Amino acid sequence: MPDGNGETTLSPEFQWSDDEDDVLVSNMVNLVDEGFGFVGSYFLGGATKQEVFKMKEEAKAELVNRKTVKSKSSTSSQMQDGLDIDILASIVRDKLKDDFQLLKASQKPFFLNVNEVFGVVQECVGQLASISADLHKQGASSHIATANRRPNVVNAGTQTIPDPTSIISDAIRFANRSSETAPASLDPSMVFPDPTFSLGLTQEGIVAPITNVMATIDSDHEVSDERDAEDSREEGGIGFRISKRQKVRTKSLMGEYQCDKGFINRARKAVADAIYKRGNTDYPAKFSVLLERMKTPFEISTERGNILSSDLAEIVKRATQLPTKVVDVMVFHTSALLQSPSSSAQQLSPAVFMDTHFVSQFTKLYTKFSKSSKKDTFKFNVPLVELFLCLAPNQNAVRFYFPFYLDKKYWVGICVDCSSWSITILDCNLSLRTDVMMNKEVRPFATMFPYFLKHVGREVGMRECKAMAIERPRSIPQQKEVTHSAISTVLFIQAHAVGGVDACKCITPDNLDSYVERLLVTLYEASVGPL
């Protein structure tokens, strides 16, 4: 504490002096000032390099030991705070001791049962061996009888496989004998059941007699085997088995089912007759006459426009894409084909066929329509409404067809179906555009057409102008050339109008020419005159 003079006074044990002289330190300072050359030998004591390295290693080891000790101590503390593993193991062992003894005792009868089963299996194997020996004996006796009737010249050096006739005959006899000795509790017809089919087919028909089982090997075998087959059939009493399965063809099976060519040809003829309704008309002969007339220029006039004989030649060749005026004439002719002349105003076709002019005017409004905040009150222009009412006079129409020219590269068919509230794309070149790209192109029809139907006074039902679903069937036959898309689109529209997507499957690249012949012949005769 400071005294009255402001100086601090301390007790002697707490006092020290910073200015005490040290002779050794003074000599060292003087030598440094004089520039004396010091060497290592002057400084004695301290640690060598080996000792320093050893100390570093010991420090590292000590650090590792500290970490290990900490982890062990923490584990032990946890065990002290929680449960001891040894105590827990002893408790579990005492609890399960009786169960383990019971399991050990139950193993003995299990192995006894296994031995009994093994004995039964050995007995069955012995019975199969005896049956096999009987078959070999019967085969040998049949060989001897056959050799006595008619010797066969066989080269012993090349004959390594038993006679197939004896193998088949032995199998038939053994099957008949097995069916006779079948237990009474089993159905005789289930010993060797006849196959059934899941395509709705049954086996109600008359079973043909088995008379040609061995007819390809030997004539003597043929006579004897016919007699044996008749005897076995009379003794066995083979009955007819009728399939009880549902005669409903599943969609997944029929989707990829490959039909016979004859069935496919009948289906194609049925589709063509449903479109053209002309009976047994010789279209190839009439088409030959039309080709001769096409050498002289002429013009075909319709309500949708006029086309020249050169346009018909382009349809036949299909070297380039058809122009829109030709496609419009084909669509107008399709409408005339599918609309019966005797139909009244109340019996109009439920399908309506639009032209490319309507498609062009309709898609131009989509930009303005998409920006409209109140789509229910969107006003469609008067020319578009008048064109629609002219093309679709039927108030009960539910399907609207029109061709769609994508970027002036290839054609697709569009079907707007109000009954299923969906849009079907009839595309014969699926590889040119992905589903996402195609949906973007067809989106104006899916979102705007419901509001357009409501605007023109057509029934929308309970849909509340919701966007239509877009479908792009993969089962539509694909064309090899893009230039075939225009005429294929027209033909797909015709087929879909009479039979849906399944009818479109009949128009394939191999029979496209025959449908083109029918289309051009009927167009010429409807516009110009008979051929």
Features:
single chain, 531 residues, alpha/beta, 5-stranded mixed β-sheet, two-stranded antiparallel ribbon, 16 helices, 7 strands, extended, Ubiquitin-like protease family profile domain-containing protein, cysteine-type peptidase activity
Summarize the structure.
With 531 residues, the protein is an alpha/beta fold. The protein has helices spanning 23-34, 49-81, 85-149, 164-180, 219-236, 251-255, 261-276, 283-293, 309-317, 324-338, 356-363, 366-371, 382-391, 435-455, 485-504, 512-527; strands at 299-302, 305-308, 351-353, 399-406, 410-417, 422-426, 469-471.
Structural commentary:
- This protein is an alpha/beta fold and 531 residues long.
- It has helices spanning 23-34, 49-81, 85-149, 164-180, 219-236, 251-255, 261-276, 283-293, 309-317, 324-338, 356-363, 366-371, 382-391, 435-455, 485-504, 512-527, and strands spanning 299-302, 305-308, 351-353, 399-406, 410-417, 422-426, 469-471.
- Strands 3-4-5-6-7 form a five-stranded mixed sheet, sandwiched between helices. Strands 1-2 form a two-stranded antiparallel sheet.
- Strand 6, helix 14 (435-455) and strand 7 (469-471) form a beta-alpha-beta unit.
- The radius of gyration is 50 Å and the shape is extended.
- 16% of the residues are buried.
- The model is unreliable at 72-81, 150-154, 156-160, 181-226, 232-238 and 342-346 (pLDDT under 50).
